[in-house]
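Exercise 7b. Backbone tokens:
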């Protein structure tokens, strides 16, 4: 938990610094710190994202949109496998971490590798104080995280299906739920 928070603050700092940097000067001068910024680890322009992503994915991942509750492809979905970031392909969640939250969006109680695939950012939009979750690699918006999860972690990663891809586990394909 503390690690998440620290990462969130780090991200905020990075975001603030990035705001002061002209977006146009995209010179690839990787100087001292190769992995402190999500901007440098996976740097794409808006135009490039629009080519890679569908309009709906772009709206959610890059504009922090939210798909309508209950409409996402992975909301009512229980195949075994790994959920990836729809923006960059990073493996984020496993089917073992998914639980049925009845909230209308795919929900997970943790992310792969104990938390470093997903970063948390304080979100003050819409008159609420929430914690946004973003892909640590490409910065794509995933959803929000809440402290009301029913499992041992106590956490609920509430994620848009549009932010996710899915890789089924080959061995379990025939397994019935
Ligand atoms: Zn990503």
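Sequence design result:
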């Amino acid at each position: 938990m503390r690690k998440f928070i620290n990462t969130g603050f780090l991200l905020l700092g990075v975001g603030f610094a990035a705001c002061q940097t002209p977006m146009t000067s995209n010179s690839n001068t990787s100087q001292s710190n190769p992995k402190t910024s999500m901007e440098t680890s996976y740097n794409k322009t808006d135009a490039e994202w629009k080519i890679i992503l569908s309009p709906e994915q772009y709206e959610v991942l890059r504009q922090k949109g939210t798909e309508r509750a209950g409409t996402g492809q992975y909301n009512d979905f229980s195949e075994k496998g790994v959920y990836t970031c729809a923006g960059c392909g990073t493996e984020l969640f496993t089917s073992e971490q998914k639980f049925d939250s009845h909230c209308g969006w795919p929900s997970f109680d943790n992310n792969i590798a104990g938390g470093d695939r997903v970063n948390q950012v304080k979100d003050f939009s819409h008159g609420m104080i929430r914690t946004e979750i973003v892909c640590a690699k490409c910065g794509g918006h995933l959803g929000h995280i809440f402290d009301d999860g029913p499992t041992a972690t106590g956490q609920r990663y509430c994620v848009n299906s549009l932010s996710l891809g899915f890789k089924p586990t080959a061995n379990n394909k025939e397994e019935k739920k």
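Instructor comment: Confidence is low (pLDDT under 50) at residues 1-40. Residues 85, 87-88, 90, 135, 137-138, 140 surround zinc ion (CB under 6 Å).
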